[in-house]
């Protein structure tokens, strides 16, 4: 079984040279009494949060289970979809398709109690959708937008990293809810996806005045994927009782010196709500999310933008590319034919 690992803890921007491919023997025979399920991985998700697991951690840092620190030599778990090739667990049968916490490796032995769900064989969507629009990225966008931002028709919504995995879905949910949506991204090649407007933040010298130009009447909702100066500029342009969903802070992940310092008095006087969230805490709305989103897809109201590379060897450069803005939509790596 070939798997990827980090050679050392990573400081700053990741490069494909920070990773190495190793292999370990794999047996497809499940020992009696074991409830393990062995999955052949088909698509794996490439996510920015993994960089935070690859750094040296401060011992007081608290993280969710899936975001635990990784050490050199360790296999790297990650969301993915795959096919069961052996099972000691009555719930999962050989050849069934599953989604869950798999890994940047060819096969994953999934222990009982680890996140693993069967894919409903009546779902006629491409398999990759279960890690993108109908998977963790979709749930993040849906839960963050509906549960944290509490949108109302006609409100003005700003989304950063708007052509990324989560961002392009947030913008589409916001359009479905009758909001006015502006996104920002770091390149001209990233399309608008039916948003009302979009801009390239790398071409702006002053983010506050750029946002004033796009939102002359102020922002009601900011869905933040990047943190730092974009968060400060958005807060400066928020309307009274505006809501900010802190989804991620990618611009800070690879630059330890970068922090967001929005104007506190501005937040108080405008009674702005700023709330961090994890998709993971919103699993109770998973079925509502899948049902509403499937319906949007079937009726052509939403689309999943995916950026797929092929082969385990391509995972390190796909991952490093997230921090250069190479991906257009959800970054996935297909490891094997379906
Ligand atoms: P994306 O697909 O959006 O990929 C990352 C994108 O971020 C890049 O394409 C790039 O686009 C942008 N980016 C990279 N570096 C910078 C920078 N220095 N400044 C500004 N933008 C930058 O990733 P995801 O959609 O998977 O994740 C988006 C955010 O959501 C991340 O911060 C992630 O950690 C967070 N997240 C949070 C979850 C939660 O439960 N709270 C769950 C999943 C993700 P460009 O520069 O072209 O705009």
TrEMBL record:
* Highest taxon of source: Eukaryota
SMART domains recorded: PKS_ER (SM00829)
Under the heading SUPFAM superfamilies, the entry gives: GroES-like (SSF50129), NAD(P)-binding Rossmann-fold domains (SSF51735)
Read off the InterPro entries from this record: ADH-like_C, ADH_N_2, ER, GroES-like_sf, MDR_fam, NAD(P)-bd_dom_sf
Oxidoreductase listed as a keyword: yes
Q: Where is the Enoyl reductase (ER) domain?
A: 12-333
PANTHER family assigned to the protein according to its UniProt record, in alphabetical order: OS06G0602900 PROTEIN, PROSTAGLANDIN REDUCTASE
What name does the UniProt record give this protein? Answer: 2-alkenal reductase (NADP(+)-dependent) isoform X2
Task: Give the organism, scientific name.
Answer: Elaeis guineensis var. tenera (Oil palm)
What is the gene called? LOC105040160
